[in-house]
Design brief:
Layout lengths: L2 H4 L4 E3 L2 E3 L6 E5 L6 E6 L3 H19 L3 H17 L1 H12 L3 H21 L6 E4 L5 E9 L3 E4 L7 H13 L3 E4 L5 H13 L7 E3 L5 H10 L5 E5 L2 H14 L2 E5 L4 E5 L5 H13 L9 E7 H16 L19 H16 L3 E4 L14 E4 L16 E7 L2 H9 L3 E2 L1 E5 L3 H10 L4 E4 L14 E2 L2 E2 L12 E9 L1
Parallel strand pairs: 7-8, 7-10, 8-9, 10-11, 12-13, 12-18, 13-16, 15-16, 18-19
Antiparallel strand pairs: 1-2, 3-4, 5-6, 6-22, 11-21, 14-15, 17-20
Helix pairs in contact: 2-8, 3-5, 3-6, 3-7, 4-5, 4-7, 5-6, 10-11
Bound molecules: NADP nicotinamide-adenine-dinucleotide phosphate.
The site of NADP nicotinamide-adenine-dinucleotide phosphate has 28 residues, from helix 8 and helix 9.
Length: 481
């Protein structure tokens, strides 16, 4: 099936598919082969300005559209996505690399954000109360913040889009979306689906570009964009926060992670091994929630490591489109070279390689599932997102020591705890400096739950009951009465 061939390749502005200025295009490559999949319009700063103008022009009418109508558009889009699962999954596998089975999982996860926010659109409420001195009535309205700029990464090309578009549509905000240049096809397919579901022109505008900095900075300075919702690295998040300060654009930031897994001596090892495999290998380790540091109690560390190594060594590596493949290619050559250098550095700091650890020859950006034990606290990967299929295991003796090690990072997105003790589970969950905890599970992502981090992993939450809040502004009306 030539799925890439069927997807629109142009910019989507004011409800129309358009070429970029001077007909510029960018190349989208298949990381399994290194070959070009498609060429997509490459927006210039002037194209992005037109997209912001379209979003600004559509804002009043969209804000006035009944919540039920907005919700039903999302519901229809949810149904179309589910009906096209195979097509969308294959598209994602081709442009991003993840195995088809995982891509199907992402389609379901992505669609669910639309279903969730279709239900939230009609539950936007406000408040009415009497001031304590009895002299005033306080009316609180919740209104859309206005045109939003959404910036998404390549690792979950569909879900990172729906997680932002869903609440923005539900709240009555218009949008300019800049997808990652490696994976624009999934976003363009999504825009076409939303148009088919009845989203009016100008509400969602999509501008893939090879010049992210050149396109985004003027938009944030321009005064039309009222909110930035960004998912990506902490490093880029800091730059964008500084740019938003200039015009006091409100922000939601879903940034990087450095997740710790804590396996205590009272853990069910079957559950801990299964959970760690999931936390480590979902998306080939290219996830902000990926298990980056695995701390295991000394008494069970040997058995745990050999069981994880056996599971990792048994995984099939290859193009995600092939049946039976568990581990697809990494996103690009720079990505796999970074993983390789982190592994070499850990070994130079004394780590032992139980399986994997060798960079294969091309073609394709593959890296083998790798298990390291005895990883030193000084190894670079302890303070760097590995973003690859490498399990880095370190031993600990006490709960206090494990917690201190887990919290010894500037990030705080998620932590995973494996224990059968209820007291320990609650104690450790409370003391982990993270926005999310996986308790005897390696998967926390759920559209009905508030996803997000503390410390330098971000600001705000996406999904759940509060996921719409970042797209709404409170207005208070004082009523003497
Ligand atoms: P990235 O390099 O920060 O890029 C993210 C997005 O920002 C891309 O669209 C990128 O476009 C754009 N960008 C980069 N520099 C920019 C600038 N100066 N101005 C405006 N936009 C800019 O991250 P990535 O490598 O795509 O994604 C991986 C990162 O995302 C990891 O750190 C991961 O942990 C994080 N992530 C977090 C979550 C979460 O929910 N917390 C979820 C998924 C991923 P270009 O590529 O063209 O520069």
């Amino acid at each position: 099936m030539n799925v890439a061939g069927h997807v629109p390749k142009q910019l989507f502005i004011a409800g129309a598919w358009q070429d970029a200025e001077a007909g510029r295009t960018l190349s989208v490559d298949d990381p399994a082969t290194g070959k070009e999949l498609a060429r997509v319009a490459d927006a210039s700063p002037a194209d992005a300005e037109r997209a912001a103008d379209a979003a600004a022009a559509a804002q009043p009418g969209w804000a006035a559209t009944p919540p039920r109508v907005r919700g039903e558009i999302l519901r229809r889009a949810y149904e179309i996505i589910v009906a096209r699962t195979e097509e969308l999954a294959l598209l994602m596998t081709l442009e991003m690399g993840k195995p088809l089975e995982q891509a199907r999982g992402e389609v379901a996860y992505a669609a669910e954000f639309f279903r969730w926010f279709s239900e939230e659109a009609v539950r936007i409420d406000g408040g009415f109360s009497t001031a304590p001195d009895g002299g005033n009535r306080i009316l609180v309205l919740r209104q859309p913040v206005g045109p939003c700029l959404l910036i998404t990464p390549w690792n979950f090309p569909l879900a990172m889009g729906t997680r932002k578009i869903g609440p923005a549509v539900a709240a009555g905000c218009t949008m300019v979306l800049k997808p990652a240049p490696q994976t624009p096809l999934s976003t363009l397919a999504l825009a076409a689906i939303l148009a088919e579901a009845g989203l009016p022109g100008g509400v969602l505008n999509v501008v893939p570009t090879s010049d992210a900095a050149g396109v985004v900075e003027p938009l944030l300075r321009g005064g039309q964009i009222r909110k930035l919702s960004f998912t990506g690295s902490t490093q880029v998040g800091r730059i964008l926060l500084a740019q938003c300060a200039g015009t006091v654009v409100r922000t939601s930031m879903e940034l990087g992670g450095n997740a710790a897994v804590l396996v205590f001596d009272d853990a069910d090892l079957d559950v801990a091994v299964e959970g760690t495999m999931l936390a480590k290998m979902r998306n080939m380790g290219e996830a902000c929630t990926a298990a980056n540091r695995i701390f295991v109690h000394r008494s069970v560390a040997g058995e745990f490591a050999s069981r994880v190594a056996a599971r990792m060594a048994a995984l099939t590596v290859g193009p995600g489109t092939e049946p039976g493949v568990d581990v697809g290619p990494l996103i690009d050559d720079a990505g796999r070279r970074k993983v390789d250098s982190l592994v070499r550095d850990a070994v130079a700091h004394g780590a032992e390689v139980l399986t994997g650890g060798e960079l294969p020859a091309g073609p394709g950006c593959f890296y083998p599932p790798t298990v390291l034990t005895g990883v030193s606290g000084d190894a670079a990967l302890m303070q760097t997102e590995i973003f690859g299929p490498v399990a880095a295991i370190t031993e600990f003796d006490t709960e206090e020591e494990a917690l201190a090690a887990a919290n010894d990072t500037e990030w705080g997105l998620v932590g995973y705890v494996f224990t059968r003790s209820l007291d320990r589970a609650l104690r450790v969950s409370e003391r982990l400096e993270t926005g999310m905890v996986g308790l005897n599970t390696g998967l926390v992502s759920n559209p009905a739950a508030p996803f997000g981090g503390v410390k330098q992993s971000g600001l705000g939450r996406e999904g759940g009951r509060t996921g719409i809040d970042g797209f709404l502004e409170e207005k208070y009306v004082a009523i003497p009465f």
